[in-house]
């Protein structure tokens, strides 16, 4: 399947991380917004949920960089207008996934570890999702500094990199029809998620 849900693990109640590391702030911002969306439940329409989450996703994620990394080496073969359209389509798809997947609250807790790891130029913010009636899930946010701000460039869920999954999925669409095929597929998938 070309595009599975980007982040289908339910997040919820968030514990504030007592740390001075600036990489924690974007993760906290994302978590707070997801909690607001989830707690609203059915009182918030999909359009309202999308509008609430879009600016947060665009602030927290380095979507131009994430898109380029997900496309891989083929990126340099695409003209600037296709690159721009890919960034827009992938951003829309990412927001649509969050709006679709984070719409219900059932007592989950979200913990952020204040011990941030350094990995070369990047940092890793470790979190755990603790469902009310299930096994906790580990989520690692890979952070990269972009224009002076730390942004998310990957989410690793129980050892599986979402960026690596996207790169594999994107390669299939690109092989089938280049950037236009990937843009069309992303937009079609977003439309389905936003129904």
Task: Note down, in words, how this protein is organized.
By secondary structure, the chain is of the alpha+beta class. Helix content is 49%, strand content 21%. The protein is built from 5 helices and 7 strands. A hairpin with a 2-residue loop joins β3 and β4. It is globular, with a radius of gyration of 16 Å. It starts with 12 loop residues before the first strand and ends with a helix. The N terminus is likely disordered.
Q: Determine the N-to-C terminus distance.
A: 20 Å
Rounded to an integer, what's the Rg over CA atoms? 16 Å
As a percent range, the share of strand residues is 15-25%
Total helical elements: 5
Query: Mean pLDDT, nearest integer?
Result: 89
- The helix/strand series, from N terminus to C terminus, equals EHHHHEEEEEEH
Give the low-pLDDT segments.
Answer: 1-18
Shape assignment: globular
Structural class: alpha+beta
Most strands sheet: 7 strands, mixed
Oligomer: single chain
The count of β-strands is 7
Helix content: 40-55%
List the main descriptive attributes of the protein structure presented here:
alpha+beta; seven-stranded mixed sheet; 5 helices; 7 strands; 49% helix; globular; disordered N terminus
TL;DR of this structure?
With 195 residues, this protein is an alpha+beta fold. The protein is built from 5 helices and 7 strands. Strands 1, 2, 3, 4, 5, 6 and 7 form a 7-stranded mixed β-sheet that branches.
